[in-house]
Structure formats: structure tokens, C-alpha cells
Amino acid sequence: MKTHTAPSAREKKPAAFRRGITTFLILAVLTGLEFWVSRATGGSAALLFVIGLAKAGLILHYFMHISSLWSQESH
What we know:
Elements: H1 9-40, H2 45-62
């Protein structure tokens, strides 16, 4: 019978680092897309707004941990 143990701090660091790098890359790509949209479309406000919402959602999820509001706390 296997017992489930909480991951140690040593096991959490690589996962957090990968998640941080992934978040950085996604934000960089979205910023590049914003730049391209502003140049190619003359600054289409609707498209820039949608991209801005995607970036805001990513920041809320990763940096502000908004998803933890709806999950159970584990100690």
C-alpha cells in the first residue's frame, strides 16, 4: 500500500522554476504579439484589449494565486 506524502521543498523548487519560466515565455510571446498587432493593424483596440486580458489572467493566476481562492487549503 502506497502512502501519499506531501512533496518536499526540494521537489517543489524545480516545478516552480519551470512554471515561472513558462509564464515568462508566454508573457513575452503575448507582448510580442501586442507589438505586432499594434504595427500591423494600426493599433486595433479590440485585439490589444483581448491580448491584455489574456496577460492579466495569466498574471492573476500565476503571480497573485487567484485560483487558490476556490481550492481547499492543505496544510
